[in-house]
Amino acid sequence: MMNKTTKAVVLGATGGTGTVIIAELLRRGIETVAFGRSLPKLEQFAAKLGHPAGLSLKTGDVFKPEDVFKAAQGADIIFHSASVPYNEMSTRLLPMGEAVMEAADRLGARVVAVDGIYPYGRRKDEQPITEEFPKNPHTQKGKTKLEFERMFFSPRWSHTQGMIVRLPDYYGPTANEASYLGSTLDAIAAGKPGMFVGNMTVPREYVYLPDAAVMIVELALREEAYGQNWNIPGAGTISGREIVRIARMASGKSKPVIPVGAFGLSLLGLFVPVMKEIVEMLYLTKEPLRLSGRKYERLVGPIPATSFEEGIRETIQAIQSRQAKSL
Q1: With 10 labelled, which of 30, 111, 259, 311 sits at a CA distance of 20 to 30 A?
Q2: CB of 239 within 8 A of CB of 302?
Q3: Mean pLDDT of 131-142
């Protein structure tokens, strides 16, 4: 059953997932509040969208329940797509989630939390995993994410309903350097040497963010989807080498792209702390998880699946457009 959603608020509005969710909500005629810390960034984002009539901007601190509460007045759904850097995850992820849930509980609004696959831990085989796959994380980030899930679905939030949507690695025109592919595609688009995190020969799953937004909003508008985890799968698997090949063709440039493993990331971590935090997640580049979309298909229907050729081309073109404007 579709719920009667007329207004939504998106936390982390200017991030990669937040921006595509907002675009999808507006496309469906849903009044949308973009919430973020920086008003100039929000205004710049609104300008890119052409200042649509259904969009309003609210600033605040996602770690403060009162700020979220004020911004979400009258909202039916809160999309929690705000994130924290890897090197701050163990100390800041749960306080942020607590603040969001406290505000939602006071408002009686539903919450859709955008998350990843880390709580699943290692795969058992190469078969796509369902939402019922046992969560047995062996990394610190996976354990922290599992704590978040337990907090999120805690019975103490008695006036709100929530769902967690889980994405694999992602890419797209709005993706930034917070994604593994972000810096790789930025470098290729600019015709500069780049790096690729992890193994470049093992095919992995990636979801195109505009496709993910369609699936996330579809689920958010359905009453029966709440109280559960949902997989948001991509259009299949692809190796790093193939990604680079397609991106080079799209950009018309072919500078080298170097794979970076544990040693290289540890060295980079001396200057950029978040880099060394990626090391414990490198197992996913060698033994990647694939997400099953059968549960989504049973409830909603076919999964949007933009081809890698089209999605990477659109991403490179968007990056090059931004780079040209910045010059």
Answers
A1: 311
A2: no
A3: 95
Q: How is the beta sheet containing 77-80 ordered, strand by strand?
A: 55-59, 31-36, 7-11, 77-80, 110-115, 162-166, 229-231
Per-residue pLDDT of 225-240, as tens digits, reads: 999 999 999 999 999 9
User: Measured between alpha carbons, how far is 3 from 115 in angstroms, rounded to an integer?
Assistant: 23
Asked if residues 225 and 285 have their Cβ atoms less than 8 Å apart, the reply is no
Give the SS3 label for residue 9: strand
Cα gap 245→150, rounded to integer Å: 41
- Tell which residue, 283, 118, 133, 120, has the closest CA to residue 198: 283
Identify which of 145, 118, 15, 85 has the alpha carbon closest to the alpha carbon of residue 273: 85
Instruction: Report which residue type is found at 2.
Output: M
DSSP string, 14-56: TSHHHHHHHHHHHHTT-EEEEEES-HHHHHHHHHHTT--TTEE
Nearest to 291 by CA among 142, 133, 114: 133
Question: Is the full-model pTM beyond 0.85?
Answer: yes
Relative to beta strand 77-80, strand 7-11 is parallel
Rounded to whole angstroms, the Cα distance separating 281 from 78 reads 29
Q: Distance between CA 123 and CA 249 in Å, rounded?
A: 33
Rounded to whole angstroms, the Cα distance separating 220 from 138 reads 30
Please state which of the ranges 9-13, 122-126, 210-214 shows the lowest mean pLDDT. 122-126
Beta bridge pairs of residue 58: 35
Pairwise CA distance, residues 36 & 56, whole Å: 11
Please list, in sequence order, all residues whose beta carbon lies within 8 angstroms of the beta carbon of residue 46, skipping any fewer than 6 positions away. Answer: 34, 52, 55, 57
Question: Token digits for 211?
Answer: 């496709």
Res 275: pLDDT: 84
